[in-house]
Amino acid sequence: MIILVINCGSSSIKYQLLDMKSDDVYVLMAKGIVEKIGLPMGSLTHTPGDKPKVIIEEPITDHKEGMQLLLDQLVHPQHGVLKSFDDIEAVGHRIVQGADYFSGSAIIDEDVIEKIGVCSDFAPLHNPAHILGIRAMRHVLPSVPQVAVFDTAFHQTMPAYNYTYGLPYKYLEDYKVRKYGAHGTSHQYVAGQAAKLAGIDINHSKIITCHLGNGSSITAVKDGKCLDTSMGFTPLAGMIMGTRCGSIDPNIVTYIMKKDNLSPDEMTTLMNKKSGFLGVSGVSSDVRELNAAVDQGNERARLVFKILTHDIIKLIGSYIAELDGVDLIVFTAGIGENNARLRRRVCENFNYMGLKFDFDANATGHDDRIISAPDSKVKVAVISTNEELVIARDTMHLVLGSEE
Asked: Catalytic pick from 62, 87, 151, 174?
């Protein structure tokens, strides 16, 4: 089954076209990523099977433009991999927020789209982008089944004491105000892959997974199930991120609103789209541009990395306490996989846990690998996340099941 997997992030669209033979036997026909959506200059990197990589740089205003750009590459006369869109048998979408409407993946219909829209209040940067992707796909491929795979599903195992806020209980009952988390598909995948790589039985394990990108979250995984996670009611909570402030004193919200006479929507925009790396540095939300600024002596850009590093350290430390120890720490996603200096600075703070770092393994290589020393009591791994494979598996099972 040829499946197109769409993974819309807050400023990016990752995609893979897979020919799925079974859960573990598949051919990756093409993959790519649209990046820097909404910034002055965007880019698309398209890798069509064994053909040369294609890089396109042009302004990409929004996710709709990005979606059209990637679709054009799949059927391009020179570097496409499909004769026509008719070759695509199913489309799987990563959806950040499904609240308690969805305990698992679902075949998309208008009811599902409506509920994803309702959940946009909980994921304002993502769910609207997901709906754009779904609508675009339905326009191009009206007869092709589409499946929604929800990031929140993996976090449904959190106990009530971790997902319930200290607000009047009516807000949980009436308005579904609780912790939901995000990046669940990624956390689930990398925990499993890292456990295999480290020789750890995931069903008897204490793992902390760090998904670090433009949006970031950290999850405590006990015996293969989510115990706690850093994102909350929305993906705004937790550590500092690309344009999101992370967790702050709630009274700051009303204080700034009164001072600057902001509406609730304006304050939401400020916290979600004008804060984080961008807000503190005044330079960019993109780590690569911040690194360049640091090299030029920009102290506010340097401050961003210090805040990020210590946010990660504090979250890992709290989850070590919650798990009563840790067997394995995993780094993944754009920053987690590519920033060796950040990984080193984080891990140096856990020597007291018996963590011994392998500096050479950390600094070299781009594959999945262990970056702790052989005699380290705590293993550390770098794993390339593959949310797309998880989404493709769920899509295949649901579509084939619906045809039986």
From this structure: 151
